[in-house]
Amino acid sequence: MGVAMSPTRVERSAIKRARSLRRDMTEGESRLWSELKQFRGNYSVHVRRQAPIGPYIVDFVVQSHRLVIELDGEHHATAVGMARDALRDAKLADLGYRVHRINTGELDENLDGCIETLLRELGVT
Q1: With 50 as the cut, is the pLDDT of residue 83 above it?
Q2: I need a labelling partner for 119 at 20 to 30 A (CA). Which of 17, 43, 49, 100 fits?
Q3: Measured on CA atoms in the order 77, 80, 84, 89, is the torsion positive or negative?
Q4: From residue 9, how far is each of 3, 27, 53 by CA, in Å?
């Protein structure tokens, strides 16, 4: 018997995990999400949070622009974390996505600048 899949070909376990992550977002993810969810009304850009893509659940994704937005905490700055992120970014690139990483410290210090950078990357400013 095969693995149970949803109609969108994402494993049900990934969907369940994504739903759990949406309920338990970090403080930084919540801050960023409060801004990103306004993109739909302000710029006609739909952002999804904690979305399954291939074997990964990404923090945020703009499917129409094939852009993944990852919010990185301290563990991403370690050698192991950076190597893991590089591999993940390469695999997401193979699936046709660009990855934009935001450090939580940068988000705390300059939320407006992070949003402006994303808008430029999306070509809506």
Answers
A1: yes
A2: 17
A3: positive
A4: 10, 31, 10
Q: Percent of the chain beyond pLDDT 90?
A: 59
pLDDT at 79 over 90: no
Cβ-defined contacts of 48-52 (< 8 Å, 24+): 49/22, 49/25, 50/18, 50/19, 50/21, 50/22, 50/25, 51/18, 52/10, 52/11, 52/14, 52/15, 52/17, 52/18
Domain of 59: which CATH number? 3.40.960.10
- Tally of domains within the chain: 1
Alpha-carbon gap, residue 30 to 13, rounded angstroms: 23
